[in-house]
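The following block was generated as part of the benchmark described in Methods. Ligand: guanosine-5'-diphosphate.
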Amino acid sequence: MPKLMHKKSITIALAGNPNSGKTTIFNNITGTRQKVGNWPGVTVEKKEGSVSKFGHDLKIIDLPGTYSLTPFSIEEIVARDFVLEESPDVVIDIIDASNLERSLYLATQLRELDCKVLFALNMADLATSRGTKIDADKLSELLDVPVVFTIGNKNTGIDSLLKVAIKLAGSKSKISQKRKVKYSNDIENSISKLQGFIEERIEQNLPYNIRWTAIKLLENDKIVRERIRQKIGNKSLEIFREVETHRKHLLDRFDDDPEIVMTDERYGFIAGIIKEVVTKSTKRRIDTSRNVDLVLTNRFVGFPIFILFIWIMFQTTFVVGSYPMEWIDSGVNWLSAILELFLPDSLFKDLLLNGIIAGVGSVIIFLPNILILFLFIAIFEDTGYMARAAFLMDKIMHLIGLHGKSFIPMLMGFGCSVPAIMATRTLESNKDRILTILITPFMSCSAKLPIYILLAGTFFSARAGTVIFLIYITGIILSIITGRLFRSTLFKGADAPFVMELPPYRVPMIKSLIIHMWDRSKMFLKKMGGIILVGSVIVWMLTAFPRNINYSMDYNKEINKINTSFMDKYSNADDYEKKQIEKQKNAAITKLKLAEKAEKAEKSFMGSIGKTIAPVFAPIGIDWRGSVALLTGFVAKEIVVSTLGILYTAEEADEPDALKNTLLASEMTSLSALSLMIFVLLYLPCVATIATIRRETGSLKWTLFSIVYNTSIAWAAAFCIYQGGKILGLT
Ligand code: GDP
Ligand code: MG
C-alpha cells in the first residue's frame, strides 16, 4: 500500500452531510495550507490540505457533502469511490449532532464499508441549546466507533478529534466487523447465501469486502456490478444470475424492490439507535429557525423579501463595485499611458498596448464585481438563506422542468455566465446541472448591455428602454422553451430523488466567507485571465496584420498637407482665431487618422474574414462590419462595441455622439439593429463561458452542442425578425 511509504504520514478523509461543518473543521485543521481542485473527471470541488501535528504528517481531504453513499449523485459516487479506492487511513464522519437522525444514514453506510471510521458529533452547541442530549458513550458502544464532540466554528474538540484519528489509524486491530447494520432475517439470509456463493466460486479476487459486495449486489448497485464485471470478466455472469434469483425471491417476499426494503431497514436501525442515545429535555427551546422560515418561505411575504435581497445584491455588485472598477480602470489606463510614452514605436508595443493590456485589462476590471457577487453568494449559502430562495422558486422552476436550486445560477447569469455556470455545482443531479448550464447563457449577461444601449439608443431613441427590456424577456422566454424542450427530449427519465433541505440559520464565519469568496475568484482570475490573454492576442493579430497595406491614399502626406495649409492661416490671426484654427486643424487630422484606422481594419485579416463570412449574415441584415464585431464578441461581448467603434467611426471619436451619428448615416436600419441585438443576445457564449462550460460539464459534446444550439437559435430568431419585419414593411 502506497500510504505506508512515508511511515508517519496519515490520510484522513472528512465525510458528512452538506452543512454539517466539514469545511469549517477542514479549515480549522489546515488553515491556509490547502489546495482546491476538482475530483478527476468530474466537476465536484476537491479540497486537500496537509499539516504536521502531534508528530505526524496529516493529509486531510474534504469529501463532497452527501446524505448517503448510494450512488445517485456525482457527490455520492465521488465520496464512495474515494473511500473504496484510495483507502484513506481514517474516515472522520462529521455528524450534525443537532440533526442526528438524518446524519446517521451516512454514518451507518460508512460503517458498512471496510474502513476505519470515527464520528465527530459537531454542532454540539446547537444540540445542547435545543435541549438534545446525546449519550456519546452509548453511541460509540452501539456502533463500535470512537465518538468525539466538536464545535467547528469555535475550534473546540478538534485537537482531540485528531488525536483519536491518529490513534485509530495506528491501531493494528482489524476493522471491527461487529455492530454493522443488521437486516431482517430474509435479507440476512440472502446476504449470507450470496456471500457463500461468491466465496466458493470466486476465490479472493473481488475488489471489495464480500459482505458489502453481496449487499450492494442485492441492491442492484450499477457501479459495483460494473467494477466486478471489469475485474473478473465472464465469471461475474454467474454471480449476477445468482443475485437475480435472490432479488426475485426478496421481491416476492416483500412486494418491493430489495434496495427500498434495505433502505427502510437501515432507517429502522437508526431509529433504534436514536431511542437509545438521545434524550430530549422537556422544555425544548422554541425553534427560531422554524419561526423565521414561516416568514421567509411564505409565498406572499417571502417573495418581496427575496426580491429585495437580490436587488441589494445586484445594487451592491454593480454600484459599490463600480468604484474599485474605476480605480483599476484608471490604473490600467495609467499603465498604458506610461508605456505609450516610454516605449519606442514597434510591433511589440502595439501587441502589448492594443492586444494584451486592452484585452486583459477589460476583464480584470470586473474583479471587484465578481468578489462582491461571490461574497453575497457565500453569505446566502452560509446563513442558510440560499436554501430558502431555492425553496421559494421551486414551483416556478418546475415550469422549466428544473428544481428551485437551478434558479440561483440562472439569476447570476444576468451578471456573468462564468460564475453562474460555476454555481451549478450546488445541483445534485448531473442532468439538472447540464440542463441548467445549457439555458444559463440565455440570461443576458451584463457585458451585452453596452451593445443594447448603443444600438437601441441610436435606433429606437425614445423607446430604447422598452426595447432593451423586451430583449431580456426574449432571452428568458427562450430559456423556458429550451428547458421544456430539452427536459422532454434529451434529459428524460427519473430525477435523483431530492428533498429540499432547509438547514438551520447560522451566523456565517468571516474566515469561511473569505475563503469561499477567494477560492472562486481565484479560479476566475486564473482561467479567464489565460483565455482572455490568448483571445486578445489573436484578435489583435488579426487586426494588426498584414502590415503592408495598400492604402487608398497616403495619409501621412495628407496630414502634412493639412499642417502646412493651416500654418499659413496662423500667420495673420489673433489669439482667439488661433484657437479656432487649432481646433479645426485637429479635427481634420483626427478624421484622417480614423479613416486610416478604418481602412486598415477593412484590409486586415479581420476585414477579409468579415467579408468572407458576410454572406452568412446578409439574410439577417448584418453587413461585414457587424459580422466582424460579432466575431470579436466571441472573445468577450464587451469587445463588440469597441469593434463597431473601430469599423464605423469616421467622425472625431471624442465627439459624444460620433458613433451614433455614423451608425445612423450607415446602411444599418432599426430593423437590422434589432436583428443584431437579438443575435448578440442569443449567439454562442464568449470564450470564457465556453471554457467554463467545458470544465463544468466535463464534456466536449455538450460544449459543442451549446455553441451550435445557441448560434442556430440566434440566427433563426434574427432571421424571423429581419425578414418578418421586411415583409411587414418595417425598416
Ligand atoms: P459543510 O457543508 O459540511 O462544509 O459545512 P460548513 O463547514 O460550510 O458549515 C456550515 C455552517 O455551519 C457554517 O456557517 C459554519 O460556521 C457552521 N458551523 C460549523 N460547525 C459548527 C458548530 O459546531 N456549531 C455551530 N453552531 N455552527 C457550526
Ligand atoms: Mg463544505
